[in-house]
Specification:
Layout (H helix, E strand, L loop, with lengths): L3 E11 L4 E6 L12 E4 L4 E11 L2 E6 L5 H5 L5 E5 L13 H4 L3 E4 L4 E9 L6 E6 L2 E6 L5 E5 L4 E4 L8
Parallel strand pairs: 7-12
Antiparallel strand pairs: 1-2, 1-6, 2-5, 3-4, 3-6, 4-5, 7-8, 8-9, 9-10, 11-12
Length: 166
């Protein structure tokens, strides 16, 4: 597992007192209420969360030592992260997205399909981007397709339905 886990991307500032606007990388927005601090990727500094609020799926944070718009602006397009020990336990058969990236994907007949290079969250279900040399496949993360996720062996088994790999 990685040391730092990205939990949001700083996309803008808010106001003149150093508030940052973040796109969260979590399904549970209120997750930020439980965090005491985050790490800013730009300077790799642990910063105490002074205030957090939410609006329209976006997280607004006031962080320690970011107290004006100019300083906040310098963090734009960088990430905020947490350490592994700040992660919440997940229910059985659910995974953090970063845990799935890089996993090898096989058909239920044992054929190697490729490796998960990216995960998209367009709406109803996640979509796994699987790359194998010059080929790229987009696989819906639904039970009809994803049959097994083996974290120990870093391997995913999928049911290759008609038209899926074309």
């Amino acid at each position: 597992m990685k040391d730092y886990i990205k939990v949001g991307k700083i996309v803008n500032t808010h106001g003149v007192k150093g508030c940052i606007k973040c796109v969260p990388f979590t399904d549970d927005l209120e997750r930020f209420d439980d965090l005491e601090y985050v790490y800013t990727e730009k300077d790799n500094i642990k910063r105490k969360i002074k205030e957090v609020w939410y609006r329209k799926g976006t997280v607004y944070l006031t962080l320690e030592n970011i107290e004006d718009m100019s300083t906040a602006e310098s963090f734009k397009n960088s990430y905020i992260s947490i350490f592994e020990d700040q992660l919440r336990d997940l229910p059985e058969d659910t995974y953090y997205l970063f845990e799935l990236e890089g996993m090898k994907v096989y058909s239920d007949e044992g054929e190697y399909i490729g490796e998960i290079s990216e995960i998209y969250q367009p709406g109803a279900n996640d979509v796994y981007e699987i790359k194998n040399n010059d080929k790229t496949y987009l696989i819906p993360a639904v039970k009809e397709v994803v049959k097994e996720v083996n974290m120990k062996d870093r391997k995913i088994i999928i049911n290759v339905i008609e038209g899926l790999l074309e």
